[in-house]
Amino acid sequence: MKSIKNHLRLSALLEGISFILLLAIAMPLKYMAGIPELVKYIGWAHGILFVWYVASVVLAISVYRFTLKQTSVALAGSILPFGTFYADSRIFKKL
To answer: Helices marked H in 22-82 — which ranges?
Structure first.
């Protein structure tokens, strides 16, 4: 059970970092400096980390019996900036 918690927390951390890198660095460089390459690579990595995070949440839902509110917060965290960090601090850390 502890390894599932660690897996979930790691996926949340990495997905959150990749999302912030994409929004704060790669996208501005693409649109303000005409350098689109970072969006390709960071976007690709973020996509893989996003799928990993959602799969980790789905696994945790069944193992830890998340409530509807916990499930909603955990999944919404994947589409909001800093959302995975919030989900980690409010839900995952307490498992």
So the answer is: 27-33, 37-64, 68-76
